[in-house]
Amino acid sequence: MSAAAILDLGKIPSKVNPELQSERDCSSLTPYISEITAIVDGGRNNTEKRRQIERILFKDPLFRDCAIDSVYKPRDEMYARGVERSVRLFALKEEYNWTDEEFGIAVYVINHQYSLGLHTVMFIPALERLSTEQQKAKWLHLARNYQIIGTYAQTELGHGTNLQGLETIATYDATTEEFILNTPTVTSIKWWPGALGKSVNYAIILATLIIDGKKHGMHPFLTPLRSTEDHKPLPGVKVGDIGPKLTFNTVDNGYLILNNVRIPRENMLMKNAQVSREGHFTSRGPSKANYSAMILVRVTIVNWCSVILSNSSTITVRYSAVRRQSTLDSSSEKESKILDYQTQQYKVFPSLATAYALFFVSKTLKNRYLKTYAEIMKGNFKNLPEIHCQSAGMKALSAEMTVELLEISRQACGGHGYLAASALGDAVASAKALVTVEGENTVLYLQVARYLMKRFAAAVSGERLSGSTEYLCMDPIKYSCPINSPGDCMNVSLLCQVYRFRAYRMISKAARMLQRDIEGGKKQHKAMNDNLVQLVRAARAHLLYCMMVDYKESMNQLQISVPVSKALNNLLVFFTVFNIVKNAGDFLETESIGLPQMEWLKETEVKMLAEIRPDAVSLVDAFDIHDNTHGSVLGCYDGNVYERMLKSTQNEPLNQCDVHYSFHQHLKPFLQRNNTSKL
Amino acid sequence: MSAAAILDLGKIPSKVNPELQSERDCSSLTPYISEITAIVDGGRNNTEKRRQIERILFKDPLFRDCAIDSVYKPRDEMYARGVERSVRLFALKEEYNWTDEEFGIAVYVINHQYSLGLHTVMFIPALERLSTEQQKAKWLHLARNYQIIGTYAQTELGHGTNLQGLETIATYDATTEEFILNTPTVTSIKWWPGALGKSVNYAIILATLIIDGKKHGMHPFLTPLRSTEDHKPLPGVKVGDIGPKLTFNTVDNGYLILNNVRIPRENMLMKNAQVSREGHFTSRGPSKANYSAMILVRVTIVNWCSVILSNSSTITVRYSAVRRQSTLDSSSEKESKILDYQTQQYKVFPSLATAYALFFVSKTLKNRYLKTYAEIMKGNFKNLPEIHCQSAGMKALSAEMTVELLEISRQACGGHGYLAASALGDAVASAKALVTVEGENTVLYLQVARYLMKRFAAAVSGERLSGSTEYLCMDPIKYSCPINSPGDCMNVSLLCQVYRFRAYRMISKAARMLQRDIEGGKKQHKAMNDNLVQLVRAARAHLLYCMMVDYKESMNQLQISVPVSKALNNLLVFFTVFNIVKNAGDFLETESIGLPQMEWLKETEVKMLAEIRPDAVSLVDAFDIHDNTHGSVLGCYDGNVYERMLKSTQNEPLNQCDVHYSFHQHLKPFLQRNNTSKL
């Protein structure tokens, strides 16, 4: 077909691109793809359930282009569409009687492209967690029935990480039995909460409680912000959108200024603390359930990272199998698939392997969380610090890995990966948010590091440790590198020992440096600050070891066919080796391995690229991501990349007319200013 | 001032934020800032010239918000504004009689926020380079006088890197003395050229010349695309915008479909090859001047990377000096400046140091280019391969470093660094483009690697080398690590030896691996592909060594005061040490250093953070970047971060009314569907 014809039609060939078809025809994994899909979905029933939800959603034009249409729309329309989608989604939930889990699948299917997520993800759970039974009876029904729409407003312009620094205040007025809410300084203005700007009419406001001039800590106040009739901001409330972000622009993250806003005493959510009519304050201290909510969100982020990488790997691998450029063999007439270049594999496969790794890691972490949560519910808090450390750390490490690897694989798509229509830029931007939200990464690493320093001190003092830090009791003298031949580099159990020893040495080094500085006369806090960089390194080393163990053990529990086992094991080995080579300095420096081992590992690494290569397309097909979910012109199942790129230009506002108005307004007067004669 | 009052006024305090003022008061470098500014500008006269241009531009409202206003505008308006700015900029150039260099400064001052850059950056230079004298006489005047607006159209949907694969054809028709241009396949459609979509009326089209069915290689054809009267596409021309990109959305990168478009024979630009009336083809082969144009662009990109990092460091350092969060010392009442955290310094200072490093490196590279260019003009091509390799490699390494470090420093600004108004996301997106344009990074690394393999083979065969690869003649047996004490880690000359040896060993290893594979029976191309990852590593190692040497030597040539020398030297040492620690695995693996040295280097690294800390704000002030140029709410000279953030919300379209129309359209009907009673 000629180029002109294709563009006129905006037509996509009905057949799968032969480049992609040949990949599927040649991969021995192809017949087993559905087996992997079932693993990823958590069972064949779940796969069917997800596909059913996809069918429901994508028969509706409102959702069909959800992943990509926003790049062509001004913010204003983007938001309006996000609201429309929210409402439709809520209605579908009711119509099909979706469980919360099914609703979560629907959100994943539409790639989070809706505006009112905070209502279900934060507002309702917070109401459940923080309200008395009486309050629940009053408010939960309204929220679940969407008669009120709410969000959770904690972060302020000046404070995110340090919650103790929040400045919003709620002063009790016993004469009227009301709280008076104020954001008294510029830095106290609420800033960032999702859906706050234009959408919600209620918010749970975190504020410092003041009674008779005395501070009583932070508490949640359910506060009406807009009229439920005409949606106008209520008196004393100034609210708006904080402006565009790197992505998530369907969501109206907002600011909120409160100027003597009065709410009834009953609107303080009083599960954990009460204020009586007379202004008497009593507290049970914060509920452990609050912590566990935070932990669960972080565990969820690890999974989200896996989802982002699955999406993007689907795009980058398929495109790399379609794109041909230059030749590997100069005697060949045909250009080579870029996926056949070792360097391309080295940019694309780490993302693919990490997508699988984080899937398995998040599964294990979720199970561990559920186990610990059950213990906590029975009053056993023994494992709370451990799960807190694990979830915080894994969130940080996963998000960091995802941003880095995803960007490299985006770059591997060259210029076309720079187009918004590739959807890769947006994926990177989403991942970047995960570095900061729900605990800034470095802050989390340092929480892990502090935990490790405590555990290490306990180990040194002879305490027997359990859980992820058990190994800190080891006798390092007894370590000898277990990798004794190139073949050992394929043995993940042996490599885990290497990871463990590296972590031990990094942690003990950090402890030694701290001790040295303190013994040298530095104050504790100064010694701490002077070693933060090493402490973060130690935390990362520990977390990477934990990740390896969880990944390996989760894989071990699978009941799978031989071809699937082989393919997934290739990814496991590659991931394990890749992360040693990537952190080679640490491994050598800690003498966890020696120079010959490093040489073998690098050879194993590139060997594994070649092993993964034939199954690469099958391994992304197995994620079974709907084309409308990833939304990329480069990554569709049919591989008709170039035709889709051409078609996508029809969505560009600039192309809605042949001659843009700016020609008449600006360009023409200038071009013809000196000369009115024809050329 | 209360929060409510400030927002209502959208008022920015007239005083510098005391947090930033105290930094300036305390830095001993403050009195010497103008000395550094002069270095960066290339002399005090140039500083004055730049400021003069800033005054001219920023008294015009059209340019005042140029760096940031596009984030609030739909694509359509963004583009229109870019056209308007282009026209105004061209008019100012004429009005003030700016030289090309001064025009370049103006473009830098408005942060490239205009649409028609390709006309001056590519179209006119290409006309100059590729035209005969007769053609120049005809076309150059029209182009320089903006009577025609043009671009350079080379890249196609299916081909960027591999120019040999381009598919557009120009068939000579001797009967009419015309060329017939066609894009015969989907993949041949021109795709990416800047300003092609909506703006230009002419393009230099790269196409394969065909005469009587015989191909004669690629040549440039000056082709009218749109009517100079009404701007409508000419017959056979289908042209449009390719859709939004990660940034640069004021530019209408375009696609172009040519369907039997006829142009006169005289429109083939015939400096390097001619087609006579009768269709007789003669060629002088491509001009060396073509290569040198490509080299110059790459050299410019190294400088551009420095500019991007200067901009972003200005933002991240100032914000880090204003932002307080948590406390380092729990006994302190006041929260700590985040710039005082070692981890923050470790995220922000590498960008700052690299901004300076790349400034000096690009200066040296530019001088080397000019010297080689002068030689070439005299017919001496001896140093062409060397400068080709250097410029290609430095472009790749600089762009790679910039994307990576910039993103880390963006993350260091937490949530606020995720706001479009921070301007950091856009800076990262700009840097990402530089990885791909003007030679994809990996392709360039491999060009360098192939050059190195040749030079290494020459060295092994006893040839005496000169230039950057001279060291390949070394006898590795004679190397012993020159770092013999912690103090040696401050000695950049010694560290350069370490870099050199690492490069040598990485290169010799790659050569050995290739040789082994070929001797093992692999074909050349297979052996090559199986070692691409190591070849890229070797190229990087070589380039990093070259960068260190150029940086050090460029610094040595400065005539500067002691305080400036000390401050810049701190950055040099930090940069040198940082890049060893970052690549620790390589340095240890090649035995360029041992374990004790690595320990010392890591200690030096964090020590240097503390050395740089007091002067950090001065070091970014010295870039003297106008607030309107970086356009960030976080990075202004006055440090009134939070007030500017608040004010920026006034630009957000969603905030133009209290109640968004989507409430009435979508939300209200849903909220009230079950219940019409008031809450």
Structure description:
Chains A, B: Its main location: other. Chains A, B: InterPro entries: ACOX_C_alpha1 (IPR055060), Acyl-CoA_ox_N (IPR029320), Acyl-CoA_Oxase/DH_mid-dom_sf (IPR046373), Acyl-CoA_oxidase (IPR012258), Acyl-CoA_oxidase_C (IPR002655), AcylCo_DH-like_C (IPR036250), AcylCoA_DH/ox_N_sf (IPR037069), AcylCoA_DH/oxidase_NM_dom_sf (IPR009100). Chains A, B: Pfam families: ACOX (PF01756), ACOX_C_alpha1 (PF22924), Acyl-CoA_ox_N (PF14749). Chains A, B: FAD binds at residues 155, 194. 2 copies of one chain form a homodimer. Chain A is an alpha+beta fold and 679 residues long. Among the domains of chain A are: 148-286, Butyryl-CoA Dehydrogenase, subunit A, domain 2; 290-463 and 478-620, Butyryl-CoA Dehydrogenase, subunit A, domain 3 (Up-down Bundle). The first copy, chain A, is built from 24 helices and 11 strands. In chain A, strands 1, 2, 3, 5, 6 and 9 form a 6-stranded mixed sheet that branches. The first copy, chain A, has a 3-stranded antiparallel sheet with strand order 4-8-7, with no helix packed on it. Chain A has a two-stranded antiparallel ribbon with strand order 10-11. In chain A, helix 10 (288-322) runs antiparallel to helix 11. Chain A is globular, with a radius of gyration of 28 Å. The model of chain A has no long low-confidence stretch (mean pLDDT 95). At the A-B interface, helix 1, helix 6, strand 7, helix 11 and helix 12 of A face helix 1, helix 6, strand 7, helix 11 and helix 12 of B.
